[in-house]
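User: My collaborator sent over this chain with a note saying "see what the structure looks like." That's all I know about it. Can you take a look?
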Amino acid sequence: MKESVLTPVHQHLGAKMASFAGYNMPIQYSTGINAEHDTVRNEVGVFDVCHMGEFIIQGAEALELIQKLTTNDASALAIGQVQYSCMTNEEGGIIDDILVYRLGEEKYMLVVNASNIEKDWNWVVAHNLNGAELANISESTSLFSVQGPYAIDTLQKLTSVSLKDIPYYHFKIGMMYGIPDVIISNTGYTGAGGFEIYLPRNLSVELWDAIFSAGRNYRIRPIGLGARDTLRLEMGYCLYGNDIDDMTTPFEAGLGWITKFSKDFTGWRVLQEQRNKGTKLALVGIMMEDNGIPRHGYRIMNSEHETVGIITSGTQSPTLKTGIGLGYVHTGLKAPGTPLLIEIRNQFHKATVCRLPFVQSKVK
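Assistant: Without extra context I'll predict from the sequence alone. Here is the result:
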């Protein structure tokens, strides 16, 4: 397993460590997943997400390459803006869901999932036919996600950059705790609001400690990947490898809104046909009617006990105190309110298709 630069810090804090995407990562700390979840919803928490990947694409051919690789329209990005997008293969399957940052006039950064760094990099390199300048800076870059209602109060103590003036899905580059050229991005994966901080890896421990000192009065806590999963599920956000992969398409996954046909991209024709004709499967939110918890791989059935889909992600919602999940069902069953059954240990538990997100976002 690869180690985060902060692995010794997590171990000192008593984190339960486990392998995630090939990295030794903190799953939870001594307070537990539910307490960490509530911290992010109500106060402020910090995630070590240094395992994520970052690629720089620059030069006169940079935009053309990104447009070819991604489904969203990167030409709409202003400098200082971030865009959620995905890369698709020739069959329209999702290679990865990513963030695209426009850093300069001809300079962009792609942020990719940890499990896909090598695959994504090889895909970008293979399609760079016109000579855009490429750099994989994943090994030299750290990423912290500071999330929760008091994230802005915590981080503002460490920078002169006006954080309240960074709109959602925008960023600024500036000094933070004496560290120059830090990317401060109003993005996140929790729905609780906050910022993602990109900095040189060799300065990670220094800034981590400074953030916790700044947030002491706001009951700041380190947050593991367990709570990261429950937080993103309450928002209905997809996790690559569970809810989306190379065999699922943006339209099946409810990501048609990041699929723009004003330009050509890999898999364009397949996805245009899906847009026009529809799909056989659709990803939906599912809420349990009883005490059962839907888990990855559980079968979804209709009232006649016929299999109509499968759960891709599921948990007990710490906020709602009930089981929630995401899963693919036949499109005829995707309407909110549709009754379903979930097979849990050979028993059938009542559930209902639910409109996403399960919990209202606090992002402004």
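A starting point for your reply to your collaborator: The two ends are 38 Å apart (CA to CA).
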